Amino acid sequence: MAAPLNSRLLRLSPWSLSLLAWACVPPTPQAPAEVTIVTTDYAFPAPKELPARRTLFRMDNQGRVPHEMALGQLKAGVSADSVLAYTSQGQDPGDLADGIVGLLIADGGQTALGSLTVDLVPGRTYLMICQFKDADSLPPHSAMGMQASFVVQ
């Protein structure tokens, strides 16, 4: 008759116990890549491509006026150019997005207080846009060039 399971476990060698403990430890997650978007008044200098992985976005506003960085994942097959044409007709850019990933806001000369951590999806296009206005009578910052997109490889 075989020994009960608990007594068999007690007979494991120290090496076997070490191996068993090592196998039970979950793998250490990879640290996210970090991308800092340095905004100026009416521009988002941003990479054109980013790798598919967890990515932490920060925003540093070096302009004089407040800006936002609304980051959205576009619907499959939608290009950034088509979104910009759509918004130039007064339409909501959210209509062409799967959703808003997040939003960072910073006053002029400031860094956003938080950050966004995003699991970037391969083959998808993301759009950064600022819809702030300097006055009600002026166009949104996106119409003055404050938009950028990147494709995930």
In short:
The protein has 153 residues and is of the alpha/beta class.
What features would you describe in this structure?
There is one protein chain. The protein has three helices and eight strands, in the order ααββββαββββ. It has 153 residues and is an alpha/beta fold. The protein has one domain: Sandwich (Immunoglobulin-like). The model has no long low-confidence stretch (mean pLDDT 87).
SSE arrangement:
Elements: H1 5-10, H2 14-24, E1 33-39, E2 49-50, E3 54-61, E4 67-74, H3 80-88, E5 97-106, E6 116-119, E7 125-129, E8 147-152
Parallel strand pairs: 1-3, 2-8
Antiparallel strand pairs: 3-6, 4-5, 4-7, 7-8
What labels would you give this structure?
153 residues, Immunoglobulin-like, five-stranded mixed beta sheet, 8 strands
Strand content: 25-35%
Count the beta strands: 8
Order of helices and strands: HHEEEEHEEEE
Q: Count up the domains.
A: 1
Radius of gyration: 24 Å
Q: What is the class in the CATH system?
A: Mainly Beta
Overall 3D form: globular
Straight-line N-to-C gap: 59 Å
Structural classification:
alpha/beta
Question: Averaging pLDDT over every residue, what do you get?
Answer: 87
> Roughly what percent helix?
10-25%
CATH topology: Immunoglobulin-like
Low-confidence stretches: none
- What would CATH call the architecture? Sandwich
What's the total helix number? 3
Main-sheet strand order equals: 2-8-7-4-5
| Main sheet characteristics | 5 strands, mixed
The named CATH superfamily: Cupredoxins -  blue copper proteins
